[in-house]
Amino acid sequence: MEKISYEPISKLMVTLLNLDKLNTYDFLAAELDASKSTISKVKKGRDVCIRHYIHVIGCVMSIIRLTFLAEVMLKQVRRSLVENRDLVVGTLPHGKNGCKKPVPDDWEVVAKWE
């Protein structure tokens, strides 16, 4: 059996952590109830327990006010499997008043800024 790689999740987490200088060791250790050693591994993208990835991503996304609509993503993954389609992720520019361009009718939003 192949070992599951958490590298994509790790890269997402490190990217989110680097968005804000306020994500210090002390802040993350207090927010996540984790040791500074664990936080050091997390910030470097090293293999840690999956729950640490989930906690960090959830914490940072709430701070930057980005909501991931997992149920919409799951629906699209299922659809792509059933209909034998590719699943494509796209981005649109976002401004102070929301999305600068209208979302095409055949697109589904899976993450949005609050």
Molecular structure report:
The chain is mainly α and 114 residues long. The chain has two domains: 7-64, 434 Repressor (Amino-terminal Domain), CATH 1.10.260; 67-113, no CATH class. 48% of the residues lie in helices and 9% in strands. It has five helices and four strands. The strands form two sheets. Strands 1-4 form a two-stranded antiparallel ribbon. Strands 2-3 form a two-stranded antiparallel ribbon. It is flat. It starts with 6 loop residues before the first helix and ends with a strand.
Second-tier CATH architecture of the largest domain: Orthogonal Bundle
Give the strand tally. 4
**Distinct helical segment count:** 5
Distance between the termini: 41 Å
For the record, the CATH class of the largest domain is Mainly Alpha
**Percent of residues in helices:** 40-55%
Mean pLDDT: 78
Q: How are the strands of the largest sheet arranged?
A: 1-4
Dominant shape: flat
- Run of helices and strands: HHHHEHEEE
Number of domains: 2
Low-confidence stretches: none
Structural class: mainly alpha
Rg for CA atoms: 17 Å
Strand content: 5-15%
**CATH topology heading of the largest domain:** 434 Repressor (Amino-terminal Domain)
Largest sheet features: 2 strands, antiparallel
Brief digest:
With 114 residues, the chain is mainly alpha-helical. It has helices at 7-17, 25-32, 36-43, 50-64, 70-82, and strands at residues 66-68, 94-95, 98-99, 111-113. It contains 5 helices and 4 strands.
Which terms summarize this structure?
434 Repressor (Amino-terminal Domain); mainly alpha; 5 helices; 4 strands; single chain; 2 domains
